[in-house]
Amino acid sequence: MRCSFAIAVAVVFSACAGAAHAQTTSSPAAPETTTAEPTTAETPTAATPTAETTTTETTKTETMTTTTATTPPAATPAASAPVAQPTPPALPQHRLFLRSTNLIRYNPLGLITDNHISFRRMLYRDDSVFLRDNFVGAGFTPQVSAAFARVGALVEVQPLSALRLWANFDVVGYFGTFGLLQSFNSPTADFSDTTITQLGQLPAGDPQKNFPTWGTQLTLGADVQLKIGPVAARNLFRLVRGSYQLRQGDTVYYDQFYDVLAPNEGFYINNDTDLLYVSDFGLVAGVRMNTTMPFYAPHQFTQEERAAGIVDHANGPTLRAGPLVSYTFFDDERALFNKPTIMVVGNWWLAHRYRTGQDVSQAVPYLVIGFQVTTDLLPHLISKEKRARETVAEAPATAEQEEERETEAEVKELREAEESEREAERAMREEEQERLEESAEKTPR
After folding, report:
1. First and final CA of the chain: distance in angstroms?
2. Are 177 and 149 in contact (CB under 8 A)?
3. pLDDT, tens digit, 9 for 90 and up, residues 237-268
4. Is it true that the peptide bond before 396 is cis, omega within 30 degrees of 0?
5. Fewest 10 Å CB contacts: which of 13, 371, 437, 444?
6. Contact, 31 vs 129, CB < 8 A?
7. 3-class DSSP state of 354
8. What is the DSSP letter of 203?
9. What does the DSSP 8-state code read for residue 265?
10. Within 13 Å and on the Cβ side, how many CA atoms surround 95?
11. CB 255 within 8 A of CB 266
12. CB contact at 8 A, 258 and 306
């Protein structure tokens, strides 16, 4: 399993390197770029499904500006006029980015609403397709599901169009519903769906029953994306560290969001790799491969297991793959809720401790259905403020306002009259001076 994980990672990085080489070596003539804010990363004109595999794949919805390199046009006769290439509209200096995603998931079961709000400022102005969509941003990411809620601070930087780096720190609260949160004293513990359900049905007060709790979670992410013609490739990587208030003696907990037995105050990784076809009418279709790998410290095993030399586990890497498809109905920047997108992800588990026949049949797919909207709120807020000012200016005046306006008008008229009198006096003095000068010139000396 460790070998297969290393091979999978090697394939991911080699694919990204190959795509990057293709992007850089393609002809610079007439490059095109289109931007969309789909679930996790953007694809032109259409959004793609979320890049996070979790209670409902959501946090991965991080904006991906894809870059398209087009081949030079065929040679034309010398007499023909060159064809002008369309210039993409300039990106705004500031954006208030909003993405709202609602997802339902099966195998494992989950339901979540995920929201991403971030103020983004452009780092520098550059029309190059590789550098055009750059920014630094900060915001927050509230999420609510049937089992937990969390809210956190987000910082992000996109130094070039194909790379986004981000960090998210969340405060998480579990309600004690749907068998969560459940913790164990060793990575070798049974965390199958059947066991989680049975433990959740124990009477209140049983030491093995799930319990409400809270904690924090740090996530570090890197999104890489490239697009050549209608083909896009992207890799979404995240390193996660959770720290929760567990039962006395427990060292691991079941994180249903990533479907992993996570080490408390330890790390695990989650990675999505997508290969996509992007149409020009809102449809995006392709394949996704996901892998998750926890990393346990020796102290997280029981004392008996450590004495017996048992410090291994079968919890990772997990692996699943399959198709994904999304459709964006329209892309209109004037709309308050832009890019409404439906998405479906259907994967099959290729490696998992309990989902390849041990507890759930391997024929049962991992299924996600979601809906997402994204927008830049800043133009709408500015427009609303402007309309409010205009409304106040056009509103009928009160009696006091009318009297004040009349007084201001009278004062203005008096000042204008005084100014007119002063202008007339100056003109008379200048005319008298001219007559005196002419008379002096005519007088014989």
Report:
1. 122
2. no
3. 999 999 999 999 999 999 999 999 999 999 99
4. no
5. 444
6. yes
7. coil
8. P
9. T
10. 22
11. no
12. no
pLDDT band, residue 35 (cuts 50/70/90): very low
The pLDDT, as a whole number, for residue 269 is: 98
User: Is the pLDDT assigned to residue 27 strictly greater than 80?
Assistant: no
d(CA 139, CA 120) in angstroms, rounded, equals 9
From the list 280, 289, 211, the residue with the least C-alpha distance to 8 is 289
Does residue 181 have a cis peptide bond before it, meaning omega lies within 30 degrees of 0? Answer: yes
Q: Which domains does the chain have, with CATH numbers?
A: 2-70+89-387 (2.40.160.40)
Give the span between the Cα atoms of 149 and 129, in whole angstroms: 39
- Cβ atoms of 367 and 105 closer than 8 Å: yes
Per residue in 332-374, pLDDT (tens digit) is: 888 888 999 999 999 999 999 999 999 999 999 999 999 999 9
∠ CA(216), CA(220), CA(222), 5° rounding? 155
| CA-based radius of gyration for the chain | 32
Q: How do strand 338-351 and strand 260-263 relate by DSSP bridges?
A: unpaired
Give, as one character, the DSSP assignment of residue 300: G
Contact 229, 68 (CB under 8 A): yes
C-alpha distances in angstroms, 379 versus 88, 97, 137, 279, 375? 19, 11, 17, 28, 10
Indicate the pTM of the whole model.
Answer: 0.71
Residue count of the chain: 445
pLDDT at 176 over 60: yes
d(CA 162, CA 130): 7
| DSSP 8-state secondary structure symbol assigned to residue 29 | S
pLDDT computed for residue 34 by the predictor = 33
Query: CB neighbours (10 Å) of residue 79?
Result: 5
Q: Which of 376, 370, 282, 276 is nearest to 331 (CA)?
A: 282
DSSP H or E stretch at residue 240: strand 231-244
- Residue whose C-alpha is closest to residue 158's, from 246, 221, 73: 221
Sheet with 260-263, side-by-side order of all strands: 183-184, 252-255, 260-263
